[in-house]
Amino acid sequence: MELAKIFIVALLVNNVVLMRFLALCSYIGMTSEVGQSVGMGFAVTFVTVMATAATWPLYHFVLVPLGLTFLKILVFILVIASLVQLVEFYLKKNIPGLYAAMGIYLPLITTNCAILAVTFENIDYGYSFIESIVYAVGVSLGFLLAMVLLAGVRDRIKTSPVPKFMQGTPILFIASSLLGVAFMGFSGLIK
Amino acid sequence: MKGSIRLGIALALFAVGACASLAVVYSITKPRIEAQDQIALEASLRDLFPEGEVFEDVSASITSANATVNISSAFLAKRGEASLGLAVKAAGPSYGGQAVLLVGVELNRSIAGVRILELNDTAGLGANAKNPGYYVDKTNKITFPGQFAGKYVTDPFVVKSDVVAITASTITSTALTTIVKAAADAGVLWLENSALAPSTDQGPGASYSGSAASESAPATTGGN
Amino acid sequence: MKSLWKTFKQGIIYENPLLMLMIGLCSALAVTSSVANGLGMGLAMTFVLLFSEIVISVFRKVIPNSVRIPIFIIIIAAFTTMVDLVMKAYFPDLSKSMGVFIPLIVVNCIIMGRVEAFASKQKPLTAIFDALGMGLGYTWVMIAISAVRELLGNGSLAGIPVMPASYQPILFFILPPGGFLVFGLFISFNIWLKGRMEKSAKERA
Q1: Separation of alpha carbons B127 and B121, rounded Å
Q2: Residue-range definition of the domain harbouring residue B6
Q3: What pLDDT is stored for residue B201 in this prediction?
Q4: Which of A165, C101, C133, C182 is the most exposed place for a label (fewest CB within 10 A)?
Q5: A191 and B174: CB-CB below 8 Å?
Q6: Is residue C106 part of a domain?
Q7: Pairing mode of beta strands B82-94, B70-79
């Protein structure tokens, strides 16, 4: 039951984008259409889970015993950067369509704060390996959810009369604010 | 091939340089970082037991019966040869991650007080547990952790009927109450096992059906 | 000297990272629930930006182009770790309230962006002024947003109660949705301001 709670909290209650402001660059940049958002969401999910699978053992079985915990930031970000490189190579070779569609946002996954934040929090919250994986999946699916929601909202905004000074980014933030208020309602889900 | 080696060497040099400078900074800041937690802990210990002179670390012999609450350490407050009470440092899940509390248990099985060491809950809501200006009982100016002082471990701890919750923060209130109860239970169990808690109306030798009893007797002689 | 001053000014207004370039947003929204946090984050970010730009600018001719990104990451991560350690040692309360966002400075797009676009191509002195300008631009916007959020959401500024005692703080503003709203309004105001500046520049021309 603990695992389910971790998952729900990560997905909804503490939604990584709407409640914690992480991964905003991709959130604003890659939500112009739903298909793009879904692709990005799954790419991030993949990288996050892989990153967790790599960094958790690395921290607990290498950094801690050697007393090198201060290298955590350095090591984790390099692991993520390498993983993203691998994903890039793989996509370029095997799914060139998706690779082209994602363009510059693929290398930007490296700077996606959500992924790095998840790897840090797995350590800070003292999660076991399984708990970390569940948390990683929950957070990244929460990211996917927020992305898809905003893409849908943006679709509607295109055909709505937006005041001149709100056009573009401001209205997206206001919309996100309202989405966030809705998500705050989820806090009643966990006892 | 030669080009790749050059690249590898450049990368390695920078990595080594970075790690070396970090090692230096770490060695300078490490003692201070560890001291910070100690400073906060000692301040809270003195706050709970103002008459305590020595706080003996008895962490090795205390266990938590509650699986979600982790008892990280326990300190026996003493003045001279007399024991005053036990301070239990416990961590458990709360709304915004782990919360760390220090619960003081008196020899008569009541709670001396609760101090919140770490809490990351929502500002303005759950975080008010830490706020010294936020009262759950406005007339008597009692804060959320303050309401536990004097409460007997055997009393009920149901949130909203016996324990006053923080407005709109039931999850935080319940989580913190769980930690307090678990810490207090563990503390009382330890005190009984160490024959420091004088027997009450429950009769001598009666103790909770807790899990592991302490194997190693603490090196103190409780003077009553 | 004049061009150095111009470089400095760019970051504060015309190319303000948060309002104009709109990068590095994550921390801007998450850490602005109080002025103390906003200021602390601004200074921490500026420190990492400044030293990363200096080091990378000094070594710019030596860093091989094909592995420059990993090397940039190593350097930025090193300085971020230093800030993290120093804050944990000397400002533990601030460090705890900013939580994971201090280590997240390493993926702050502003730093990576400036280092790639500027420091790797400019002399150290120019890089210093760019870092200071960008850092200051980031910090002032952080303080502005935090001031609004803390004032409306908590009735205080930097922990000092400012609003009259009868003011009921609007909790919304220090909660996440409030952050989005305030920031959206800030950008909106900024766009309006930019429009006015361009209009008056055109009229003068």
Answers
A1: 5
A2: 1-48
A3: 44
A4: A165
A5: yes
A6: yes
A7: antiparallel
Three-class SS string for A8-27?
A: HHHHHHCCCCCCCCCCHHHH
Residue C182 lies in a domain: no
Quote the tokens at residue C126.
């120019």
For chain C, how many structural domains are there in total? 1
Stretch C136-152: mean pLDDT: 89
With H, G, I as helix, E, B as strand and everything else as coil, classify residue B139: coil
Q: Which residue of C75, C86, C153 is in closest CB contact with B18?
A: C75
User: Which residues of chain C are within 8 Å of residue B34 when distances are taken between CB atoms?
Assistant: none
Residues of A121-133 as b/e, b for ≥16 C-beta within 10 angstroms? Answer: bbbeeebeeebbb
- Strand C156-157 versus strand C160-161 pairing type: antiparallel
Among the partner residues B7, B25, B33, nearest to C67 by beta-carbon distance: B7
Residue C152 lies in a domain: no
Number of domains in chain B: 2
For residue C154, tell me if it sits in a domain.
no
User: How far is the alpha carbon of B13 from chain A, nearest alpha carbon, in Å?
Assistant: 15
- With beta carbons under 8 A apart, name residues in chain C contacting B124: 153-154, 169, 171, 174-175
Q: State the count of interchain CB pairs (< 8 A) between A and C.
A: 116
Tens-digit pLDDT profile for residues A106-117: 787 888 888 999
Would residue B169 count as lying in a domain?
A: yes
CA distance B85 to C121: 65
- Report phi then psi at B76, rounded to 5: -90, 120
Smallest Cα distance from A2 to chain C, Å: 23
Q: B133-168, pLDDT tens digit by residue?
A: 677 777 777 888 888 888 888 888 888 888 888 877
Q: What's the rounded Cα separation, in Å, for the pair C178 and A146? A: 17
Q: Give residues 35 to 64 of A whose Cβ lies within 8 Å of C.
A: none
Residue B8 lies in a domain: yes
C105, B49 in Cβ contact below 8 A? no
Q: Which residues contact C39 (CB under 8 A, 6 or more apart)?
A: C139, C142, C143, C146, C158
In the chain, the amino acid numbered A164 is K
Decide if C133 contacts C10 (C-beta within 8 A). yes
Domain parsing of chain A, residue ranges: 7-183
Task: Kindly identify which residue of chain B lies nearest to residue C89, measuring between CA atoms.
Answer: B33
Domain extent at residue C49: 2-146
Please tell me whether residues B14 and B103 are part of one structural domain.
no
Q: Is residue B202 part of a domain?
A: no
In a mutational test of the B interface, the residue from A3, A71, A184 whose CB has the highest number of chain B CBs within 10 Å is A71
ipTM score of the complex? Answer: 0.82
Domain presence at residue B199: no
Structure tokens at C151: 């004032």
Q: What is the pLDDT of residue C205?
A: 67
Chain C: closest CA distance from residue B195 (Å): 39
Q: For testing the chain A interface, which of C87, C107, C193 should be mutated: the one with the most A CBs within 10 Å? A: C107
* Among the partner residues A14, A70, A126, nearest to B22 by beta-carbon distance: A70
b/e for B178-191, b at 16 or more Cβ within 10 A? bbbbbbbbbbbbbb
Structure tokens at B126: 């759950």
